[in-house]
Amino acid sequence: MTSGPLTETLPPVRHWPAADLSGTDFDPVLTELMDEGPVTRIQLPNGEGWAWLVTRYDDVRLVTNDPRFSREAVMGRQVTRLAPHFIPDRGAVGFLDPPDHTRLRRSVAAAFTAKGVERIRGKARGMLDELVDELLQDGPPADLTRAVLSPFPIAVICELMGVPAADRQSMHTWTQLILSSAHGKEVSEKAKREMSAYFTDLIGRRAGSTAEDVTSLLGAAVGRDEITMEEAVGLAVLLQIGGEAVTNNSGQMFHLLLTRPDLAERLRSEPGVRPRAIDELLRYIPHRNAVGLSRIALEDVEIAGTLIREGDAIYVSYLAANRDPDVFPDPETIDVTRSPNPHVAFGFGPHYCPGGMLARLESELLVDALLDRIPSLRLAVHPDQVPFKKGALIRGPEALPVAW
Prior knowledge:
The protein is α+β, with helices and mostly antiparallel strands and 404 residues long. It folds into two domains: 1-82 and 289-342, 2-Layer Sandwich (Uridine Diphospho-n-acetylenolpyruvylglucosamine Reductase, domain 2); 90-288 and 343-404, CATH 1.10.630.10. Helices cover 45% and strands 8% of the residues. It has 17 helices and eleven strands. Strands 1-2-3-9-6-4 form a six-stranded mixed β-sheet, sandwiched between helices. Helix 6 packs antiparallel against helix 8 and helix 9 runs antiparallel to helix 10. It is globular, with a radius of gyration of 21 Å. The termini are far apart. The mean pLDDT is 92.
């Protein structure tokens, strides 16, 4: 949004190392960038050059919903970035602009509508109950991440995608390698190629299917020549990866609940507040390191009195937008009654996360199952001893030791 006189004085370029952080600690570099102004310049650990960063809620929504800022124009450019590798392949939905982006998302839209997500609620609840049964049977102490928080989202996204149960572990391994910068570009790219080859085969075999899972919908769309196989595979990879990110998000959510027993107790005693509380936790939890995918300005654009030149790279921070005090009063406080709560934890604009409703469903089921079935659930170690993932693009605990 425009505010004040236009200036072409460039702010300094701030190096953003995106250090590994624990718990729900907010990135101190991002805090400084937010304090410096609504539009700053950053340099990330990989790629080349610098990019603009917008942090204010209204400006984030502007950039993500304005066709003058292109994802597609990023391809072929070495824009400064967090990951050593590009996660989507060329032609994948993450690097497409409308109308191609709209056409590709339309092919799987039915699976991610409220009706499509509700279709798997019963199956998801059943899979979760089995995991909690096994957790209780094995007894404490236990690693909540390994026992429940990791296998549950994997099972749910594989169910929605139409990936057979026997292949879930392969999907998990590939996803972890793709979502990590710790192993280097070659390892991540190899994992992405292997996952792409898997989906090429699976989608090809589903070409004549009338099933409602994602790979069947993609196979049918390819069969009708509405999308190419390359586009279908790129979308499948992105959806599979995004679906498993819930593992890290839920890990942070339960780390927070277990370190704030008063909050957990309130959710136990007041089930009616849980949906609103989950939205507030989604707003509050810093689910990723640094920033995601960049965009390129297709023409000169003014934002908050700063001129963004044609060809400049630009990032948005949803984490910062969710802490904008003009939109979220007292943003550092977790207010489970916050209303309205127009957070952008799942993004905004054409690239809004298609799995937003699925992630909410999984969070609701996890909170219900773990708080209600294990009322004495607690951390088995001091909060500072909970190990968090290193070099991960999506933040979360490596393990969550619990007892009851």
